[in-house]
Amino acid sequence: MVDRQLSLQKMQSVGIIVLAVLTIGSAIFMSISFALSVLVGGVISIASFWVSNKDILGLIDSVTSLALPEERKAQAHQGQKGYLLRFWVRIVIIGVLLLFLIKGKVVNIFGLILGLSTVVVTVTVISLNVISHYLFRGRR
User: Fold this and answer.
1) CA torsion angle 133 135 139 140 (round to 10)
2) Of 40, 108, 115, 126, which has the highest C-beta tally within 10 A?
3) What residues contact residue 90 under an 8 Å CB cut-off, 6+ apart?
4) For residue range 15-55, what is the model confidence (pLDDT) as tens digits?
């Protein structure tokens, strides 16, 4: 459990740093309204990732805590239904939120898209870091 928490904490920390860099860079090179759009998209992206990860870890913990294989199978089936329901509710909420932000012209669409890419950029940065450790520091 500790390794998973450390990984999640690392992803969250790197994600916040990536979002800060994107937001500050946007404020410097574009405009404040563009930077705020990046910030809004990034917060939505990071929050969705955090909730999704929390749901998955909860499902795994609830299934692995049971001793009998029959209980595990039943819990996994029930947990999968709950996870999928929460997943689709989260997608609908994000969709409605994005609809209001875009239709209301509250945000710059390109800044919003850049912010929504925060988790993708974070995964890329962490992956490149792991690859560099593997290739250049002795394959740990």
Assistant:
1) 10
2) 115
3) 48, 51, 52
4) 999 999 999 999 999 999 999 999 999 999 999 988 888 88
Q: Which amino acid is it at 40?
A: V
Name 86's Cβ contacts closer than 8 Å, sequence gap at least 6: 51, 55
* Cα torsion 85, 87, 89, 92: sign: negative
Q: Where are the alpha helices (DSSP H) in 30-117?
A: 32-64, 69-103, 109-116
Tell me the pTM. 0.77
Side chain identity at residue 92, one-letter code: V
User: Contact at 8 Å (CB) between 60 and 8?
Assistant: no
The per-residue pLDDT for range 87-138, each reduced to its tens digit, is 899 999 999 999 999 998 889 999 999 999 999 999 888 888 878 877 777 6
SS3 of residue 1 by DSSP: coil
Angle between helix 32-64 and 69-103 (nearest 10): 170
Residue with tokens 């939505």: 44
